[in-house]
């Protein structure tokens, strides 16, 4: 089992433990704010399962039906996470509105808050693991899961603060008001997860910093060529697809042109290990005098 799959499986286990703790905290207190926190944990478990399936599919090798691989499966997972997060937010807002109309006192607040806090600490630790490893492994599914957990950690801290205020002040209406704020925060988090994933599905180019690295390598390592133009990039999961036209002198042999391409490709893959590079060689009359000039 790959590292990504192990981490995704770990997310399911952590999510189930956190869900159990938060559900217990809600049952002890009857707090609708703590209920909203528990409802979001249900989404955490569902999204962790979706991430596990997506990562497993994304790691399948290319086949005749999918010659570019299955890497975009992780983006679909992240979109599904966004949809589930938004659904949870709407459910939380619904419960908060009912509780706002009929506010009630919070019972066993101390014990319930302590249990909820322990779940929040566990979530915070695992959130750090997901974000760090997801970026290292270049896994959109793990990063999306980590960002979702981060919003959960922040909202859980706000919930604990609000429930504490509701108990100390005796203003029971603070409980549903806080749940509404949690719901709005989760709604925004779900939209951000969906937006970032849709950009991948729409073949958005790599970040400008990565593009600058690619240009620098082409300029430095394509000696013997004249220029490179029509540079295009996109990313799908951990893979970066790069293609461009390389202009060479008309007298350059096929073997020499191939050597230049091999040198450039090897240099790019040394910096971007999961890159897939396609280079189209052209004679000098095809030069556009733009793009990347070779040093």
Automatic annotation (TrEMBL):
Cellular localisation: Cell membrane
Gene Ontology biological process terms in this record: intracellular zinc ion homeostasis
TM stretches of this protein: 7-26, 38-55, 75-93, 113-132, 153-171
Coiled coil: none
Topology in the lipid bilayer: Multi-pass membrane protein
Keyword check for Transit peptide: no
Record's keyword terms, sorted: Cell membrane, Membrane, Transmembrane, Transmembrane helix, Transport
GO cellular component, one term: plasma membrane
Residue ranges annotated for the Cation efflux protein transmembrane domain, each copy included: 11-202
Domain (Cation efflux protein cytoplasmic): residue spans on this chain: 207-284
Sample GO molecular function, one term: cadmium ion transmembrane transporter activity
Tagged with keyword Transport: yes
Family: Belongs to the cation diffusion facilitator (CDF) transporter (TC 2.A.4) family.
Protein name in UniProt: Protein p34
């Amino acid at each position: 089992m790959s590292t990504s799959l192990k981490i995704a499986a770990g997310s399911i286990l952590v999510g189930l433990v956190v869900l159990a703790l938060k559900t217990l905290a809600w049952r002890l207190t009857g707090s609708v704010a703590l209920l909203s926190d528990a409802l979001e944990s249900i989404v955490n478990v569902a999204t962790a399962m979706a991430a596990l399936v997506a990562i497993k599919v994304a790691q399948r090798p290319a086949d005749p039906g999918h010659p570019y691989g299955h890497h975009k499966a992780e983006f679909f997972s992240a979109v599904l996470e966004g949809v589930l997060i938004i659904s949870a937010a709407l459910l939380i807002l619904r419960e908060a509105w009912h509780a706002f109309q009929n506010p009630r006192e919070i019972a066993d607040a101390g014990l319930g808050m302590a249990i909820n806090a322990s779940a929040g600490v566990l979530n915070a630790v695992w959130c750090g693991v997901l974000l760090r490893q997801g970026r290292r492994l270049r896994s959109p599914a793990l990063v999306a899961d980590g960002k979702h957990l981060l919003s959960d950690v922040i909202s859980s801290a706000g919930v604990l603060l609000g429930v504490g205020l509701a108990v100390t002040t005796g203003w029971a209406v603070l409980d549903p008001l806080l749940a509404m704020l949690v719901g709005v925060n989760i709604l925004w988090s779900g939209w951000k997860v969906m937006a970032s994933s849709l950009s991948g599905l729409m073949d958005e180019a790599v970040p400008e910093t990565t593009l600058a690295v690619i240009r620098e390598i082409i300029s430095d390592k394509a000696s013997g060529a004249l220029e490179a133009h029509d540079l295009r990039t996109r990313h799908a999961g951990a893979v970066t697809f790069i293609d461009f036209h390389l202009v060479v002198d008309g007298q350059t042999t096929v073997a020499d042109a191939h050597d230049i391409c091999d040198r450039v490709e090897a240099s790019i893959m040394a910096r971007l290990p999961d890159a897939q590079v396609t280079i189209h060689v052209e004679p000098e009359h095809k030069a556009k005098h733009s793009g990347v000039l070779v040093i």
